[in-house]
Design a protein that fits this description.
The chain has two helices and 49 strands. It is mainly beta and 579 residues long. The strands form ten sheets. The protein has a nine-stranded antiparallel beta sheet, with no helix packed on it. Strands 3-4-5-6-10-9-8-7 form an eight-stranded mixed beta sheet, with no helix packed on it. The two termini are 36 Å apart.
Length: 579
């Protein structure tokens, strides 16, 4: 049977409260789940610049107002202490780095300095690392990286080596000699025994930093010819994807480049370069595995998988919304979570498809579904949604509004594959996303074309029953004989049924649910009975019946204000559930 009832989608209606985002590509769409964190969870800062995870599994966030950690329930602001244990008011933290070997967690505030917390022993807070070297004064630290037994700091005044004596709890800085003219370094990334260091000068883009026995040594700069086409490019991040392949986020786009394996003394320059997003600014990159990376730009979040780019688009945040356009930093957790921090706070993206997702906002239209009355799926796999503010169509992973002129209560597919919709002022057939009065397609509807129907049931191979809530009762359409007539549904002692909330078909029984009664229409005998029900716990008759199903040998009926009634197969009342 071609006819489809809204009851098929009842579970979807119940679960239209999940938030989600959609990943669009040319050949696939993936539904993912997003969760936001803010002041209610203890994260008082709206600007998040860096995210990492320590050895205990705690998530750390560097923000405009300080450093916070997250224990999966609440965020807690962590103190910053000077050498005497006094609190200091450092703000604007831009970078976090967790060293798995030592358990040290470093927090960088560019205009204040660097602080360290050992996640295995320090419980009071971060301790400021003081430097007495006069040459280090005025240095703005950008990032920190461990190479061998030392830490390397990239700064606006060259590269610095940080020595840590854990036993004495002392620290020492030493500037690393460099061979290029530009001392303004942004980022470093470790690749085996060496490090790739990013300069802010595209002509001298990469230096190779080797760990020797007791010191660090920089070789001469490798000049990448392709980058010379971007003389004013500013680099924001560099990530190692897999063997000899790197991703770069910059003011000129997202670059993927590779070169043959480098060893000490070799400086090959035959680099392969591709700019995936030349018109966007790449702020953050996080690597999940050698074939999967996540990218944040000024125009949204992207999934970079198997060298293909997929854009993530929101579909559940209040319209209009640019939350994903304001992400500065990403952190791919091994537990299939992507943490996102930016101008509007912190959120997680779960890298798996949930069973349910929400459909609410019309694409390229400043409108959303207010209240959905009825759903139906057609043979073209398009979902029609009848709502208080119009008629919507969900197809090819996009929502479009077909009509906004009235409220619609019914959307269904007739036995001939045509889409029937019924609104406040009449019933229509959809043709090429346009509404035509149903009598133009089926003349037998005649003067009934302006009736408003709220439910329908297909019976046998020739009949469709329509119900109306607006004092019109129940109608029968014989689409083989091309007749349309009103049925007289009544019992002794009750008036004729004019108001109907919904119908339910079970074999040769058609149940008609109204505000006052549940009618049982025996189709073969053309007889009507009322389902007898006891009074509720307050001594008042059950009423306002809206929906009904048969499951596992029992009937279940919703009664507004009372709960769900359970009846056995003989329609005898068993119990009620209202929790």
């Amino acid at each position: 049977m071609f006819f489809h009832s809204s009851r098929v989608f009842l579970v979807v209606c119940i679960l239209l409260f999940f938030s989600k985002i959609v990943v669009y590509s040319q050949d696939s769409t993936i539904f993912l789940y997003i969760k936001k964190y803010g002041a209610q969870q203890g994260l008082t800062s709206g600007n998040v610049y860096s995210i990492c995870k320590d050895g205990k599994g705690l998530i750390w966030a560097a923000t405009q107002d300080g450093v916070f950690n997250f224990d999966s329930k609440r965020f807690k602001k962590i103190s910053i202490l000077d050498s005497s244990g006094n609190l200091v008011s450092w703000t604007a933290f831009s970078e976090l780095f967790f060293d798995e070997l030592s358990g040290n967690l470093f927090a960088i505030s560019p205009y204040n300095g660097i602080a360290v917390l050992n996640s295995t022993s320090d419980y009071e807070g971060f301790k400021i690392i003081n430097c007495t070297d006069t040459e280090f004064k005025g240095v703005n630290i950008r990032s920190i990286l461990r190479i061998g037994n030392s830490y390397v700091l990239t700064t606006n005044k060259g590269l610095w080596e940080l020595f840590v004596d854990s036993l004495k709890n002392t620290f020492r800085f030493k500037q690393i000699p460099i061979s290029i003219s530009n001392n303004n370094f942004i980022r470093a990334v470790q690749v085996g025994p060496m490090s790739i260091v990013v300069s802010n000068n595209s002509k001298e883009f990469v230096e190779i930093l080797f760990q020797q026995k007791d010191f660090l040594e920089i070789t001469k700069a490798i000049s990448f010819e392709p980058f010379k086409s971007f003389p004013s490019m500013e680099v924001f991040c560099l990530r190692y994807l897999r063997e000899n392949v790197f991703l770069v986020g910059s003011s000129s786009g997202i670059f993927c480049f590779s070169f043959p394996e480098l060893t000490e003394g070799e400086h090959k320059t035959n680099t392969k370069l591709k700019n995936y997003l030349p018109n966007e600014v790449g702020y953050g990159i996080s690597i999940s595995n050698p074939n999967l990376a996540w990218i944040a730009t000024n125009k949204g979040i992207y999934k970079f998988e198997n060298d293909k780019l997929y854009k993530i688009k929101e579909n559940e945040i209040s319209y209009p919304n640019n939350w994903l356009n304001s992400v500065y930093t990403l952190f791919a957790d091994k537990e299939k979570f992507l943490w996102m921090g930016g101008q509007m706070g912190l959120a997680t993206l779960k890298n798996e498809q949930p069973a349910f997702f929400i459909v609410r906002y019309a694409q390229n239209q400043n409108t959303s579904i207010d209240y959905a009355y009825h759903l139906s799926m057609g043979i073209d796999s398009a979902l029609l949604i009848s709502a208080t503010n119009g008629l919507f169509k969900f197809s090819n992973n996009a929502l479009h509004q077909i009509s906004n002129k009235e409220a619609f209560f019914l959307s269904t597919t007739d036995p001939f594959g045509k889409r029937i919709v019924s609104g406040l002022t009449g019933t229509y057939i959809i043709t090429a996303d346009k509404l035509k009065p149903i009598r133009e397609i089926y003349p037998e509807f005649g003067s009934y074309h302006n009736l408003s129907f709220n439910d329908s049931e297909g019976i046998g191979d020739s009949l469709v029953y329509f119900s109306s809530e607006n004092n019109q009762g129940v109608y029968c359409w014989n689409y083989k004989k091309r007749t349309f007539r009103r049925l007289k549904i009544k019992t002794k002692g009750t008036p004729e049924v004019t108001q109907v909330n919904s119908m339910f078909l079970d074999k040769d029984l058609l149940f008609i649910l109204t505000d006052l009664h549940i009618y049982q229409y025996k189709l073969k005998k053309n007889e009507v009975d009322i389902v007898n029900l006891p009074l509720n716990q307050n001594g008042i008759a059950f009423s306002l019946f809206f929906d009904m199903i048969f499951f596992n040998g029992f009937y279940y009926v919703t009664s507004y204000g009372n709960g769900v009634l359970k009846l056995d197969s003989a329609l005898r009342f068993k119990n009620i559930s209202n929790t």
